[in-house]
Structure to design on (275 residues):
């Protein structure tokens, strides 16, 4: 079994959803720094991808950033998630990176396996976990499995599934502005107004710290939708395909340098930070 005795009990790791099409080196560099810098042991999980060389691609990417130990684990079948050698290496990782592809493929192969349990244990003991595109969607407890494009929320627009469960506070959607996904995020929040919605643009990351402060990095924005003051929600009475009426949603669109407190639900724009 992996040795977790060196972890810090009670201090969870960072959660880092990336919206896809990562181009900003600073995002990866910050993740690497959180994972231990050049001495990091980064486990790459390319299960969501249909590209057979995706794991090798990210091994090279992390190598170019100076990481000496980055290893891909191609969990293609649920039985792969029982491999003791792989579990031992993964259990001693100081950072985990989930690639893009299909989040439903990722959840259906990894969900309920020793790998999923180990990822939650690592994170609970301080290991940062980053995911791009499908990997970003999978990290929360409530996951958007798939859905339709469009800005208007409609009944049946989104299909939900269980995710990895690193947080039950958020629902993440990716490629947000580029694929016009406001409607499906609003629909997901109509189903469960407890959560906050994070719509993450491409080449953009939300660094969610152990203190529940979200820092934004990258060339795009993160759209945060807060339903905590929702006063009207028609989802239970609307018919499939009909628009969902939502009154009282709060929306913040935050770019690089901005922050958001998941507990107080207060946004601090970058312009305010620089004053």
């Amino acid at each position: 079994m992996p040795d977790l005795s060196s972890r810090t009990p009670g201090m969870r790791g960072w959660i880092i959803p990336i919206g896809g099409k990562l181009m900003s080196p600073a995002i990866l560099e910050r993740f690497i720094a959180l994972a231990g810098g050049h001495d990091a042991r980064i486990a790459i999980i390319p299960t969501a991808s249909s590209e057979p060389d995706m794991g090798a691609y990210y091994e090279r990417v992390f190598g170019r950033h100076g990481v000496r130990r980055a290893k891909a684990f191609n969990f293609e079948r649920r039985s792969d998630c029982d491999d003791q050698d792989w579990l031992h290496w993964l259990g001693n990782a100081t950072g985990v990176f989930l690639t893009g592809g299909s989040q439903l493929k990722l959840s259906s192969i990894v969900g309920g396996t020793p790998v999923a349990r180990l990822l939650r244990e690592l994170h609970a003991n301080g290991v940062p976990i980053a995911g791009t595109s499908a990997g970003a969607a999978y990290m929360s407890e409530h996951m958007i499995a798939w859905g339709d494009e469009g800005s208007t929320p409609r009944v049946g627009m989104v299909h939900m599934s269980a995710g990895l469960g690193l947080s039950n506070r958020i629902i993440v959607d990716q490629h947000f502005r580029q694929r016009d996904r406001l409607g499906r995020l609003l629909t997901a929040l109509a189903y469960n107004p407890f959560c906050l919605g994070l719509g993450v643009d491409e080449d953009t990351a939300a660094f969610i710290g152990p203190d529940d402060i979200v820092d934004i990095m990258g060339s795009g924005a993160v759209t945060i939708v807060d339903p905590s003051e929702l006063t009207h929600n028609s989802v239970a009475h609307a018919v499939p395909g009909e628009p969902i009426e939502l009154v009282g949603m709060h929306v913040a669109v935050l770019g690089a340098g901005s922050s958001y407190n998941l507990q107080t639900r207060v946004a601090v724009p970058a312009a305010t930070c620089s004053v």
Residues 196 and 242 are 23 Å apart (CA to CA). The helical segments are 25-35, 54-64, 84-91, 103-110, 114-124, 134-138, 182-191, 270-273. The first strand starts at residue 15 and ends at 18.
